[in-house]
Input
Amino acid sequence: MPGEATIYALSTPPGKSGVAVVRLAGPLARRAVERLAPPLPEPRYAGLRTIKSPDGEVIDRALVLCFAGPATETGEDMAEFHLHGSRAVVAGLLEALGELEGFRPAEPGEFARRAFENGKLDLTAVEGLADLVEAETSAQRRQALRQLAGTLGKRCEDWRGRLTEALALVEAGIDFSDEADVPDAVWRDAAPRIAAIADEMAGQLADGYRGERIREGATIVVAGPPNAGKSSLLNILAKRDVAIVSDIPGTTRDSIEVRLDLAGLAVTAVDTAGLREARDVIEAEGVRRAEARIAEADLVLWVVDVTASAAAVPEGQGPAEIWEVRNKVDLVPGAVAGEVGKAGGRRTFRISVRTGDGLDTLIDALTSHFRERYEAGETPVITRHRHRHELVRAEAALRRALAGDPMAAPEIVAEDLRDAAGALGRIVGRIDVEDLLDVIFREFCIGK
Ligand SMILES: Nc1nc2c(ncn2[C@@H]2O[C@H](COP(=O)(O)OP(=O)(O)OP(=O)(O)O)[C@@H](O)[C@H]2O)c(=O)[nH]1
Ligand SMILES: [Mg+2]
Output
């Protein structure tokens, strides 16, 4: 049961480091400091202490901090040891803690789980915390911090509170259903409130999936005929040599993925095998994988060799947007690099990966494309499929309630309102979330 054992974990990455932090949470956190590193420092003040194992061996001389619950991250008493980051020092302290009665190593995410279970964080804030730990770009960091601060959680609680009031009105109507005017009057009061909430939900849902995109990152797939320079382009985008480049057509056989930070936005770029009639089974599999990646892409960069006979840009390859990139302009005397055409969303660029001509234009175009798509408009509050799923369900239930007949069947209207409140409750983790918790907390590393 959470809250019983005092848990401990190394909260910094394992291995050598300047400082390593071991955290403790639970009823005996301060006892551990008294036993291993006396005297107990004042809460929230760092004390420099000699840390000794229970049998008296010196482990380190380091800073120690204590925090008194309930005003702590998990709501319990907590302590921190800021050790010298050596494997032997860390191992020595973890071993010493393991020898004390009532202590055990923390499981992944257990600190966050205790914070959730003690009401310190709602589920959306826990997700924000997980996203913050994972954040690779500034847009992801900003979004995670907003969610950790409760932007989505507060919105849901506000809707839930107002729904509860509307539900009370509808239920009052049910109680007075013998008196002809009362249900009519309460419905006239409740209906606009319900409609307002449903409209606000619809507004949040119409966010173009920007929150999910910022969190997960968009995908650019580099595709086209063999030998066009796809892998060369990917290496430039990645700023390192990730893919093998050669003048042999069919060099790339598997899809190769790299994470890019495109002016603060997370993007996954995928290099793919050149598309042609495959010569062997391995190449055939590469082509199949390339086509699968194209189908899932947010944007396809269709790379062709300007000097080769034009390979047709594929039509109707999934929902993705396709830009044509004509590479190797250095081979055409007098040719100008840059953006050379824009027709109905289909943009065309001329570049030379070899000389670098036109690359800035292409990269700027990519950056502003993703900026516009993911940063325009109101800041999204939905960051996961889970939120969207429940919110769609809540809005649908409210629309049903509004379309229902509160006079003839007020109980059904009330049921719809409860259904909507339930969906909101699941978003913040108030109800029906046991199965979900294991999934969410497993995302965390040990020590968080
Ligand atoms: N002249 C010139 N050669 C280039 C340019 N970009 C790439 N190349 C050359 O074109 C050849 C093919 O490049 P890759 O990047 O391997 O091409 P690819 O499209 O990944 O090829 P596959 O993996 O076989 O499909 C290599 O010899 C590159 O050095 C360019 O801008 N100009
Ligand atoms: Mg290649």
Residues 226-232, 245-247, 249-252, 274, 327-328, 330-331, 352-354 surround guanosine-5'-triphosphate (ligand 1) (CB under 6 Å). The two ends are 18 Å apart (CA to CA). The first helix runs from residue 29 to 36. Residues 163 and 339 are 52 Å apart (CA to CA).
